[in-house]
Amino acid sequence: MRLAGWCLTVLVTLALPVAARADIIDRIVAKVGNQIVTQSDVARTLPLFVQMEAVDRRRLQTPDGRSSVAGEVLVTLVDNQVLAEQAKRIGMSVSEEEVQQHIGEQRTRMRLEEDAFRSALAEQGITIEDFADYVRAQLLRVRLIQSEVLPRIAVSDGEVDAMLTRLYPNGLVETWMTTSHIFVSLPPDAPAPDVAAAEARIDALEQRLKAGDSFESLAAETNVDATARTGGRVGRFDIGSLDPNYEAAAQRLKASETSGPVRSQFGIHLIRLEAMEQKPFDDLETVRDRAQMAVRGEKIEAEEKLYVAELRKKVFVEIRELGRVD
């Protein structure tokens, strides 16, 4: 789980299909010490996981994608139990008062009364009890990481310099790009037939563009995101804000030039560079702080994985085959 995932923002305004779970035949899918994780635990947690971890919701549209997300949920539940065992060993806990305080803060930020908040969760198949359990597990995870992982982290000046080079390969200049795209949606883990169909479609669109069809009309016809209403215009963004593959392809273009097909985490694009702007940074100290935070974030993510792996060695862990989660 990424460090950014610890920020428990509830995106309950986003619609998530709710599957009926009454017909699930419960079975044990993992053991951690003397605790178990069941198939219904995974099914109940999946909507929460999608919301909290900002999972690409298109992954739920195919059996393979949904199975992949369910597997991630299972690993998260196992790791949460491993962390809970460690918390018991060192006498660390999260009180019910802390959990309720956090839930109350979420409701306040969303300007929802308790009944409306419960209803919003229920619309997505999430009970307030499951939500509270998820919050408790994440608060405990954060507390453990702060106590036992963060002290391991140190960032050197050399590492910051290397990160600056990675972030700004053209020097310490601020780069802004304005782009448009023609876009065929495709989940990252789409099966091969879907990938082939998407590639064939984008190739056909590229041929129509070369034959004289307008970029804007093809974008309006094809794009499934908000850019369908803007002639494909994505807008103006600084480097680091968009998908890395998308940005890299756009940076290779000249103004008004259109790329060939480019695969990103969201699908396949034909990208047109509208404008590129560069200027030196006004505040180099802030830029360096940003690079230091990036190095620190990467180290925390890596150390957290090592930490959980170390803890798994201290307790019996068995993960079994996960059945279909509808």
Q: Could you say which overall geometry the principal axes of the C-alpha atoms support? A: globular
Q: What is the SS-derived class?
A: alpha+beta
User: Would you report the number of β strands?
Assistant: 7
Mean pLDDT: 88
CATH domain class of the largest domain? Mainly Alpha
Level-2 CATH architecture of the largest domain = Orthogonal Bundle
| Uncertain ranges | 1-24
What name goes with the CATH superfamily of the largest domain? Answer: Porin chaperone SurA, peptide-binding domain
Query: The CATH topology of the largest domain is what?
Result: Triger factor/SurA peptide-binding fold
| Quaternary | single chain
Beta fraction: 15-25%
Largest sheet: 4 strands, antiparallel
User: What strand line-up does the widest sheet have?
Assistant: 4-3-6-5
> What's the alpha carbon Rg, rounded to whole Å?
23 Å
Tell me the count of domains: 2
Instruction: Bin the helical content.
Output: 40-55%
List keywords for this structure.
16% strand, globular, Chitinase A, domain 3, three-stranded antiparallel β-sheet, Triger factor/SurA peptide-binding fold, alpha+beta, 326 residues, single chain
What does the model show?
This protein is an alpha+beta fold and 326 residues long. The chain folds into two domains: 3-155 and 295-319, Porin chaperone SurA, peptide-binding domain (Triger factor/SurA peptide-binding fold, Orthogonal Bundle); 173-280, Chitinase A, domain 3, CATH 3.10.50. Helix content is 50%, strand content 16%. It contains ten helices and seven strands. It has helices at 39-52, 63-90, 96-110, 114-122, 128-148, 157-167, 192-210, 215-222, 244-251, 284-312, and strands spanning 28-32, 35-38, 173-185, 233-238, 258-263, 267-280, 317-319. Strands 4-3-6-5 form a four-stranded antiparallel β-sheet, with helices on both faces. A hairpin with a 2-residue loop joins strand 1 and strand 2. Helix 1 packs across helix 2 (63-90) and helix 6 crosses helix 10 (284-312). It is globular, with a radius of gyration of 23 Å. The model is unreliable at 1-24 (pLDDT under 50).
